[in-house]
Specification:
Layout: E1 3-10, H1 20-23, H2 28-42, E2 45-50, H3 54-66, E3 71-77, H4 84-92, E4 97-101, E5 123-126, H5 131-144
Length: about 140
């Protein structure tokens, strides 16, 4: 069975509490449960990981490289806009990468328009709330077929 790793970056553990107008009311636990359920339906194993520590995220990405992860779905949060270290870690992966965002980063503050991951991701899904994750998982599964 294929494994898809879903990475949640800095502050995303605050979903459901942080700015519901931008991010909705779904908690990270609810999003993860929806992803695992959809993964079962699609015939893939979904592993979810969240951290607020950039080095820990880089180490998890390195483990994905050596651990045979088949695809990655990532919402790096604010790291999206400036973390070249995580971008370089992601570039090591041979697996396809799908970038997701709950809010439409292109309709927000100008600094959010830049994604340092865009060049290495197969695609980007933004602006559909928690459904962005589900769409990203579907895209990752399609990339594996």
């Amino acid at each position: 069975m294929k494994t898809i790793l879903v990475l949640h970056g800095i502050n995303l553990n605050m979903f459901g509490k942080r700015d519901p107008a931008q991010y909705g009311t779904a908690t990270l636990a609810e999003i993860d449960a929806s992803l695992v359920a959809l993964g079962t339906e699609l015939g893939v194993n979904v592993e979810c990981f969240q951290t607020n520590h950039e080095g820990v995220m880089a180490e998890r990405i390195h483990a994905a490289h050596t651990g045979g992860v088949d695809a990655v779905v990532i919402n790096a949060g604010a790291w999206t806009h400036y973390s070249y270290g995580l971008r370089d870690a992601m570039a090591i992966l041979k697996a396809p990468i799908v970038e997701v965002h709950m809010s439409n980063i292109h309709a927000r503050e100008p600094f959010r328009h830049l994604s340092v991951f865009a060049e290495i991701a197969r695609g980007q899904i933004a602006g559909f709330g928690a459904d962005s994750y589900l769409l990203g998982l579907r895209a990752a599964v399609n990339l594996l077929q």
